[in-house]
## 1
Amino acid sequence: MTAARGFELSEFEARMARAQSEMTVRRLDAIVITAPPNWRYFAGFATQFWESPTRPWFLVLPRAGEPIAVIPTIGEPGIAKTWVKDIRTWPAPQPEDDGVSAMAKVLADCPRTYGRIGWEMGRESVIRMPIADFDRIRAACSGIEFADASPLIWRLRMVKSPAEIAKIERACRIGSDAYAALPGQLSDGMNEHEVARTFRAELTRQGADAIPFMAVTAGAGGYDQIIVGPNDRNLSPGDVMFIDLGATFDGYFCDFDRNFACGDVDDETRKTQDIVWRATEAGIAAACPGATPADLAAAMVSVMADAGATGGNVGRLGHGLGLQLTEPPSNMAGDETVLEPGMVMTIEPGMDYGDGKMLVHEENVVITEDGCRLLTTRAPREMWKIG
Amino acid sequence: MTAARGFELSEFEARMARAQSEMTVRRLDAIVITAPPNWRYFAGFATQFWESPTRPWFLVLPRAGEPIAVIPTIGEPGIAKTWVKDIRTWPAPQPEDDGVSAMAKVLADCPRTYGRIGWEMGRESVIRMPIADFDRIRAACSGIEFADASPLIWRLRMVKSPAEIAKIERACRIGSDAYAALPGQLSDGMNEHEVARTFRAELTRQGADAIPFMAVTAGAGGYDQIIVGPNDRNLSPGDVMFIDLGATFDGYFCDFDRNFACGDVDDETRKTQDIVWRATEAGIAAACPGATPADLAAAMVSVMADAGATGGNVGRLGHGLGLQLTEPPSNMAGDETVLEPGMVMTIEPGMDYGDGKMLVHEENVVITEDGCRLLTTRAPREMWKIG
């Protein structure tokens, strides 16, 4: 399947039907969407305009009937081009009442069976609006319980459609091709910012729409963390450099990292590289329908523990992936989500070694009927060399 | 002043001292930070890792004493490199208790004078954590009122230091130089995505760290909205194209747009272009210490109304700018914030015309002792031509 932009109407109708069916199971009269990835998922609407925190936007999905957009006037022409036809606006910004009374009215008019409205209140969710205004809407809706809709939303989003998988696969191909082109464009003496700019330019050439995440960090003989950087540090012989990438195509992310050796690395790093590479193999081999993220984590940990590892500090060994860089579930003990075809996961073992150093690998897979399929071009067993 | 990366320790100490002084005025025992721009402002800590919604991070600023970071273990090496020295961690993700009991303990131990703790609860603010967990912390802190710290935070962030202004100016120069290079790189027949990719590549070459916002939209004879796009539409002769840009240098944004004519545009568009250009001039002329954002809006509206305009639908005519694409205040009737030296504003008049078309201009200025200084290279009076 080729990754086209956007989705057919039938895709949104199917998402809405699944949401409505789940609302009955979970005893919710409606759910309210405020967060950009959920807006994109249910309405097919995306705007970078949400980079501005000034105005909240609401999408109400009732248990029966059509979605209702409650939005700032500025958004009307854009929403009118989506499949959402019931659009109510207010002239935001309007500091004294930015959507509060408009939302209180829509929720009061919503047919009531259970007296419960779901919001994005739980795990890995944020309500994109001032909490003082959320409290005001909650107070205005006396007699209605505000419940957590996050489990319902994540249940839907966790299993990707073929059209969604095609977009993630395209993002992964863009990332893989850009990584492959990178070693020849880098050299000793570049600083981490120059590395990041070089990689950004290559990703843009390869067709990335946006690059919301790019960590670049290097250290002599190895790196000690993976979430801060790039910094002004220059690459030197003997460095190990880590790059982690979250780039999008049509809103869908790839999320995978690569390690680079500046010249020769020491034996301990080389040995650790091989262990983590084999742990990744074990994680990929374990990914199949019926397995759990806890199983995947155990498969990876087992390889590293057999080799004498005492663990890494990143807290989990991969996660779901889609409209966000990370999504549920998490590859860690205790996550007993049952994997099924269509789920997209990162396989991300990490290992501490030496004197405060760490090494992290990552690939992206989609669960299939009988196992999984690699979406990224598998990292070479030995690190790429620079210079 | 040249824009260096990062800030001196004294800059953070000054921010903390101002925050603590404001806490006394506003009767708060501490404020709690969760949002990335506020983390960056007070701790000097930035990570794209927050693109992942899985883990909350907390920074507690007590009314006296040092800041306290309450964070996932994965963040410790990064925070240890900042000026924040009191670091408490928990091994996130930990779904059953992701920071809730850790935060309840820190807040219970916080010296209590007023019995009030400030959170990012109000205007143009979002608390970056699950609201169900926020409710749990609130319930666990009986006897402590959770109050809105947003006015305090925005009061501090609204007036930029010379070092902050230098970074915004550099972002504006990167954006200005990239815009100037663009017309020669575009041609009829490119689609909006190709335009966006070309501009992204040029911005990256010019030194942009990230490009969180780039709207590209074109229409025959004019465009009808400014927040959705790029799309797959091809540029054709007679089109007017709008690009709006939010690019960063060291975390600080520029935010300004430009209009492009594909060949010749009609008389009405040409006439409107001149009106909006003159409205921008009036906005820049009005920007000085002692004026209010309402005054700036009135100056711009006056030029457009004199020319027969009936208004635009974007709700305001510019806004503050800094660590976020848009910040308070807003150029609109009712915003009586008194402008003072160091505030950075966008001057952004927009006007409806013809059959559902609109035209929007934008420049960035910093308020000085005796007026304002343009940070962007002023747009030409006539639109840039393509092809």
Note: The first helix of chain A runs from residue 9 to 25.
## 2
Amino acid sequence: MKPLEAASRRPLEGGASFSLGNRLCRIIWAVAWLTLARWTPPPLHRWRCSVLRLFGARVAPTARVHASVSVWLPANLTIGPNALVGPGARLYNQGHITIGERAVISQGAYLCASSHDIRDPHFQLILKPIEIGDQCWVAADAFVGPGVTMADRSVLAARGVLFVNAQADGIYRGNPAELIKLRQLQV
Amino acid sequence: MKPLEAASRRPLEGGASFSLGNRLCRIIWAVAWLTLARWTPPPLHRWRCSVLRLFGARVAPTARVHASVSVWLPANLTIGPNALVGPGARLYNQGHITIGERAVISQGAYLCASSHDIRDPHFQLILKPIEIGDQCWVAADAFVGPGVTMADRSVLAARGVLFVNAQADGIYRGNPAELIKLRQLQV
Amino acid sequence: MKPLEAASRRPLEGGASFSLGNRLCRIIWAVAWLTLARWTPPPLHRWRCSVLRLFGARVAPTARVHASVSVWLPANLTIGPNALVGPGARLYNQGHITIGERAVISQGAYLCASSHDIRDPHFQLILKPIEIGDQCWVAADAFVGPGVTMADRSVLAARGVLFVNAQADGIYRGNPAELIKLRQLQV
């Protein structure tokens, strides 16, 4: 958890939470993804990974990122080898998001790496990085909250909403998601 | 909770739940929002609020409503000063929806102000207004159910699903959402 | 629950889970729905049902399927008389999905008839058919998991996430969804 470094600090009066540079960068990024990647057919994963890297993401060449994925800012994104980010997944990486090797982020999943300070009357933004370990599975439509770390091989079931750290091999389900059993991964 | 005033009353056989006037009005509204607002860049909040007011909504000039918000019928909408309705929020206001001063409805949140009578074999629609108090926060992807009132400063966590009224300063989380603690808002 | 019959079997290395024939068929289907149905106005239910049938779905002529519904493969779909599938519903029928007579699948609901074997390091796809009985209601934004059967007249509340079979007349709510009471349907 780290405080925001930017700007006018009165978001409820319309003040910007991010610097002008950040906002310009995101406009350019949005246009780039729309024109270079959004319409590309599913197999062109290598191309889309190159586009992400061009804008500052650290993405392994063997990662697969679908065309309908939304990324807030590529500079805040790290994706490992053979990881998969499915159709319609939202990587809301105002804070940094790291996705491990062979991890799977299924369709419609939502990783949200920021929150607001609800004690502050100005409702300041708070950035909280998310880390998804190797061989994790964030299933369809699931939600990973700000600051959450999922240890290697842990699983969040479909539509699960995770606000706590997941232990290695743990299978979590529900809203709020709870540990229901341990994964028996065959070697 | 009030019964519906309209139409043929056999929705399961395709009967319309709303009058012809209501349906025409909504077609015009959909076309208007698409052509006048849906494509506008984020900062044009004042313009989008004017469009909403033109179609009967009561919206403060300082409110901010993003372009990708969906509103079922502007005539059933009231939004207070400095309130914010974020990207992709759905205001399904078949019943009236009121959003208080400085309240924040985050991206992807869903306010659903109607239901169906599940005892009725014809499955009649039921309209149940929603009220969101001042300085409330409905966080990302959360759902506020039919007939729910959130008292001032209450919070519904991300992906929370609220079927009961929220008390003032209450923080609710989960599905179904439950009170987890009280908000300590600094003055 | 039946194992998948197709292909290369190393999805984490990019191997396809489905045969070339299946994939070509789905491309044609996607183009067909986009050009023939996706833009059609709400009342044209009969036409959209014809399009579905043309591609192998078993759909009663009196069923109603909205234009923004997504269907993975029409050949894996059965919809009974007077059933309704609302705007934005997702029928992810990698396994077969059956929707009974007069059943209502509300807007944004998600029926997901497949999963992955989390014990398998290759993460094989598993197909698990879904059956929704007569007069059931899957309310707005709810999720029906792989292999689930909802008996006649059962109800899944808005945003409910159902991983177990629902008994006849049962009303389920929450994530994971639990039985909260029985429906008193007037005759």
Note: Chain C has one domain: 17-182.
